[in-house]
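Budget justification aside, the reviewers requested a transparent look at the raw inputs and outputs of the sequence design task funded under Objective 1. We therefore reproduce one unedited record. The lines immediately below are the structure tokens for a 185-residue chain.
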């Protein structure tokens, strides 16, 4: 066994592969060390705790989910962006079984908050993309927004519904898209 002749990237790649094959809840320091051919201490050199390993793996998986299709870098139009996020999450769910439900539950009990910070950072990234798409969509009737019905509140509503819909195995986002169509255009 190699004591520590590897890199953080190699350990993350193995963690992602493990999460893809067995689910994110199968991640642990010993299994990653075993599959990497290094000592458990080596894994701890890069990730001081299991929470840090899981958080780094989750962050990389989020990155993979939303950047797997390099050709589709910036969806045009708000509805197109909503559909793209939904389909990216759906495809990510197929590639990483139980990823969304398990990592949300494991981060809820995270004492350090690192996992929650990773999850919140990606959620805010998605929300800012939605807001940008909303503001750039010239067909949207911007005058519908007010102090009591803000763009930000609307984005939060759409995002929350996207996340809920993506957790259901047989759902689509068509109803949400129809609602958006009727409201914004």
């Amino acid at each position: 066994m190699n004591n520590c002749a590897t890199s953080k990237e190699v350990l993350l790649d193995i963690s992602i592969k493990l999460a893809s094959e067995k689910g994110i809840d199968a991640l642990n320091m010993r299994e990653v060390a075993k599959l990497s051919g290094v000592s458990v201490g080596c894994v701890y050199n890069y990730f001081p705790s299991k929470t840090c390993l899981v958080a780094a793996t989750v962050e990389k998986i989020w990155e993979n989910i939303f950047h797997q299709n390099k050709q589709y870098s910036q969806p045009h139009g708000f509805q197109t962006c909503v559909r793209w996020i939904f389909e990216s999450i759906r495809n990510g769910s197929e590639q990483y079984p139980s990823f969304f439900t398990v990592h949300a539950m494991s981060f809820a009990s995270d004492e350090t908050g690192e996992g929650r910070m990773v999850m919140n950072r990606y959620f805010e990234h998605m929300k800012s993309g939605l807001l940008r798409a909303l503001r750039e969509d010239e067909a949207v009737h911007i005058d519908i927004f007010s102090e009591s019905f803000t763009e930000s509140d609307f984005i939060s509503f759409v995002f929350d519904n996207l996340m809920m819909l993506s957790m259901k195995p047989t759902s689509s986002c068509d109803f949400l898209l129809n609602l958006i169509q009727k409201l914004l255009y």
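DSSP finds nine helices and no strands in the chain. Residues 57-184 form one domain. Computational costs for records of this kind are itemized in the attached budget.
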